[in-house]
């Protein structure tokens, strides 16, 4: 599962969840 998250300062981060849960890692 991949989520594109827009942060409060306007930056877009990729949220990569290998198991589609909250045990994920933030990648730039």
Characterise this structure.
With 28 residues, the protein is an all-beta fold. The protein has one domain (1-28). 0% of the residues lie in helices and 46% in strands. It has no helices and three strands. It has strands at 2-6, 12-16, 25-27. Strands 1-2-3 form a three-stranded antiparallel beta sheet, with no helix packed on it. Strand 1 and strand 2 form a beta hairpin. The radius of gyration is 9 Å and the shape is elongated. The two termini are 16 Å apart. The mean pLDDT is 61.
Task: Briefly characterize the structure.
This protein has 28 residues and is mainly β. The protein has strands at residues 2-6, 12-16, 25-27.
Major sheet: size, sense and barrel closure?
Answer: 3 strands, antiparallel
Give the rounded overall mean pLDDT.
61
User: Given the C-alpha coordinates, what overall shape results?
Assistant: elongated
| First-to-last CA distance | 16 Å
Class based on secondary structure composition and strand pairing: mainly beta
Unreliable stretches covering 5 or more consecutive residues? none
Q: What portion of residues belong to β-strands?
A: over 45%
